[in-house]
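Table S2 (text version). Query chain:
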Amino acid sequence: MDVLVVEDDDILGKALRRGLEDAGHRCTLVANGAKGLEIAVAQKCDAVVLDLMLPDRSGLDVLRAIRSEGIRTPVIILTALGSVEERVDGLNAGADDYLIKPFSFPELLARLSAIARRSHNLTAQDLCVGPLSLDLATRRVTRDAREIDLTPTEFSLLEFLMRNAGQVLTRKMLSEHLWDSNWEGVTNVIEVHITRLRGKIDRDFDQPLLQTVRGRGYVLRAS
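Corresponding structure-token output:
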């Protein structure tokens, strides 16, 4: 397993990295939220161990930013803050588990294994619309066996369209799915993402799958 550890305490961070590597995992250690977010969004890890008290931004802000990009990588929060309200805030922000400092390293390993299993069980499935396939476990998208490289936002948009294949989705529905359940901002940004996504999944293929329904929105369907 590739584990990203975002921890600014140098002693604890190095101890976690050493323990994870001794347990057979690969570990990337960073000491600030900006670098942690960069690596997490690039989807270069299988799990994230995230401290809440970071020097540049809070761990909750990092977690919310990760989830806003549609990234489902399992995240365990590490913190000295142990109140019920603080734990609820972390879980509501998208954390998969919560460990209060000080903690035992074997417990961290057990929790990492548990969230990895849960993540695999939830995502080990394919979505297919005609010749287009999306593997939720590996985040791999192919059409006619040709691999298509998508950004995290494009992947999340395509997944939503595929889960609702044949149904017209409005710009507002797509915006709310990508960014906020109470989205009230401009929706023309969706047109930009749709154009880019269409260029990737329909370009160089005879049959277009992503269609615009004038005055209503967009629909993904195979003839």
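Notes on Table S2: DSSP finds eight helices and eleven strands in the chain. The chain has a mean pLDDT of 86.
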